[in-house]
Amino acid sequence: MPPTPRLAADRPVSRTPIREGRVGRLLLGGTWYFRQDHAGKGERLGFARRRSLRGWQKVTVPHNWNARDTALNRSSQGWYRRELVLPRGSRTRAILWVARFEGVSHRATVYLNGREIGRHSGSYTPFEVDLRGLRPGRNRLVVRASTLRRNTDLTHWRRARFNRFGTGGWWNFGGMSREVYLRPVRRIDVERVGVLPRVRCLRCAARVEVRTLVRNTGRRARPVRLVLRVGKRVVATSSETVDARGRRELVSHFRIRRPRLWRLGRGGLYRLEVSARAAGGAAAYRTSFGVRQLRKLRDGRVLLNGRAIFLRGASVHEDDPVVGAAWRPAQRRGTLSKLEELGATAVRAHYPLHPAMLEALDRRGVLVWSQAAVYQVPESNLMLPRVRRNAVRANREMVLRDRNHPSIFAWSVANELPDVVGPGQAAFIGGAARAVRRADPTRLVALDRATRAGGAEGSPALRALDALGVNEYFGWYRSAAPGLPDTTTADLGPQLDRLHAVYPGLALFITEFGAEANRAGPESQKGTFGFQTRWTRDHLAIHQSRRFVNGSIIWALKDFRVHPSWGGGNPTPNPPYNNKGLVEENGTPKPAFWEARLLFRAPHPPR
Question: Which of 154, 184, 214 is at the close of a domain?
């Protein structure tokens, strides 16, 4: 057992890695304490109530307890503890403090001074809890994080070693993977601001809709006055009444006569501040937004600011050999540097990226195919109403958090659901598409599907979508329906033609394609750098030859951990790593990186 650490109680600070959010929020960094709970006895033993630090160790948050694990991928539980001292001058009776958790993997239970105050499931979207019951002086905030997934969870359930939970499409990192914030609420709070700009033509004025969620924590209804400023200019004002201890979404509108358009490679942002004032309290929220015109034509082509796009990019996966998925600014900077060097104009991930990453992509003018963490859920689970509700909730949480980012051009509701669209999947697709469009009607609604020669296509349920993400591994995996021979790269073009014929109105994007590479060798041999380079070049050429394909996103930018028995179609695998990355796990670019860079930076033919 490690030595018992000394008790430290750092005050929260005003430094925030994320620019968007409530004015006055504080980062709850500093000293945290952690203890593992493989046996699952922490609740019975009272870890949330204990004063002693015996058995705990000092950590900093963000933190993954298995960040350096490359052998076990063990699902488990861990406890985090933070001694909380509020800023000087804070009167706890006059102020309601709210804690915001940007991401806890996977299931969180929050305690304050030994009392449970909140729960949440989902690693990549935030949740908030009221810190009611704060005492003068020191308080104890405790979080139990669990990666023990149920077989009806939306990701990462496979029968595995130890407790039969944990393996999945990527490493089952556990802990508090993203930051924690505190903010004071004096009767009125601005909890969320959604900015939805629209522009009918390139020379038209932009019409901007702003949806502001205001909360009244007081005991009586209050008229709330909203003031919206773009830069220093007041663009809209309104006054509405919010019920006692209630929430109300207030909708405002304003115009930008000659908007500066957000563009690929350039960005172009407006800063917005929404302030709310009522008797006894005030709050303000700051965010950024961009104005751009996104259109889908009847033939499936997508136009950005009037020009047909052909995106070239790579998928990002949050995995680092030292910190795991608990990325800091250094890991984000390194990833952004590699994307820029590659010449990528698009990014994708299997889950919502960190808000600071999205803000950086906003500034750089890189488009994002954003995806909810709904991955390979079987039809038997999708037939369960509660599973569908959870999957729709995951989409809604993603959109409500990220709809202010102009870099996001598509919301993908799920990845690689069953090939045959059964009634459960159809109900989910319809429900998710409706929920996404209610929260944001300005972007494409999409679904990512694995494509196979002779596979089931043509489901009417896909008519609810605007775009289809095509995950293709022709010539790497078998990629064929039962009874058909294995595919080759030469089969890819006809398959894309078939998809376009079946879904002529859907915008098609290649959202995954990749080949493993972990060693030198001839290009005819799978798993070699030479094979990966040639395979990538050939597939990019086929994608580009189809006018109806709107872009290609390589899987993936960098090698990452999957599970201890990963093979990935490689005759000589390197478990637990998925070696389809253009960059090795240590940061060294593979030859395919330079080949892709050359092709990404080459002039695009007219679309």
Answer: 184
The separation between the first and the last C-alpha atoms of the chain, rounded to the nearest angstrom, is: 64
Residue 306 domain flag: yes
Q: Is the peptide bond before 106 cis (omega within 30 degrees of 0)?
A: yes
Taking residues 211-232, what's their average pLDDT? 97
pLDDT of residue 91: 67
Report pLDDT for 19.
96
How many separate domains does the chain show? Answer: 3
Contact present, 173 and 146 (Cβ < 8 Å) = no
Domain around 101: 21-184
Can you give the CATH number for the domain in which 259 is found?
2.60.40.10
Beta bridge partners of 36: 78
Q: How far is CA 367 from CA 57, 114, 310, 424, in A?
A: 41, 44, 11, 31
Residue corresponding to tokens 């889908």: 296
What strands lie across the sheet with 107-112, from one edge to the other? 57-59, 32-36, 77-85, 138-146, 107-112, 115-121
If pLDDT is split at 50, 70 and 90, which confidence band does 156 have? confident
State whether 268 and 334 are in the same domain.
no
**Separation of alpha carbons 162 and 176, rounded Å:** 22
Do 145 and 65 share a structural domain? yes
Q: What is the pLDDT of residues 465-498, one digit of tens each?
A: 999 999 999 999 999 999 999 999 999 999 999 9
| Rounded-to-integer distance, Cα 267 and Cα 340, Å | 14
Q: How far is CA 601 from CA 280, 363, 557, 604, in A?
A: 57, 20, 16, 8
